[in-house]
Amino acid sequence: MGYGIGSFLATVVSVFARVVGLDRDRAFYPTVLIVVGSYYVLFAVMGGSTEALIIETSVMTAFLLLAVIGFKFNLWIVAAALVGHGVFDFFHGRIVTNAGMPAYWPAFCMSYDVVAGACLAWLLTRSQPTPRSSATAKPADIRER
User: Fold this and answer.
1) What pLDDT, on a 0 to 100 scale, did the predictor assign at position 142?
2) Which of 87, 82, 79 is nearest to 126 (CA)?
3) What predicted TM-score, i.e. pTM, was given to this entire model?
4) How many separate domains does the chain show?
5) In the predicted model, what is the mean pLDDT of residues 72-85?
6) pLDDT over 70 for what percent of the chain?
7) Per the domain annotation, does 21 fall within a domain?
8) 51 domain residue, yes or no
9) Can you tell me the distance from the alpha carbon of 53 to that of 109, in angstroms, rounded to the nearest whole number?
């Protein structure tokens, strides 16, 4: 069930962001990556494990850096990092024991991340490169530099 709900929710959020215009700014998907990367830290705090907190914070920091680098240079990095976080979700239980994490979370998060990354990739294949300045970018599309 986690796979279906995660996939459905990522699709709904991506379509909603597109229709409303939230994804016009190139910061939308990098922000999504930062948020999904932070949940495991929250779960580590809830579980009360210092070891899990250190590991989860390290992993979150890596995804935060990828979000910033992708935002600054190329949104394809963000799309790949979202899918990469989905791969991390698949292996998460073998890497770290996090007692605060709900049992359904890895399946839910993996499917959400992969679908969100695929949605961003689809948007990027439909855009044309434009300069970094938001003043010259057309507001209806995510644009690469």
Assistant:
1) 59
2) 79
3) 0.86
4) 1
5) 97
6) 88
7) yes
8) yes
9) 18
Q: What own/partner pairs with CB < 8 Å and gap ≥ 24 does 37-43 have?
A: 37/63, 37/64, 37/67, 37/85, 39/105, 39/109, 40/92, 40/96, 40/98, 40/101, 42/100, 43/98, 43/100, 43/101, 43/102, 43/105
- What is the C-alpha to C-alpha distance for residues 53 and 26, in angstroms, rounded to an integer? 30
CA distances to 67, 82, 136 from 139, rounded to whole Å, are: 21, 23, 9
| Residue 142 within any structural domain of the chain | no
Q: Indicate the average pLDDT of the chain.
A: 90
| The pLDDT value given to residue 41 | 97
Cα end-to-end distance, the chain, whole Å: 39
Read off the pLDDT of residues 89-122 as tens digits, 9 standing for 90 and up. Answer: 999 999 999 999 999 999 999 999 999 999 999 9
Which pair of tokens denotes residue 4? 């279906």
Which residues are within 8 A (CB) of 37 and not within 5 positions of it... i.e. 6 or more apart? Answer: 59, 60, 63, 64, 67, 85
Above 80 in pLDDT, residue 46? yes
**Looking at the domain assignment, is residue 100 inside a domain?**
yes
Which residue range(s) make up the domain with 112? 2-125
Question: What span, in angstroms and rounded, lies between the C-alpha atoms of 22 and 14?
Answer: 9
Tokens linked to 105: 């979370």
Structure tokens at 20: 């409303």
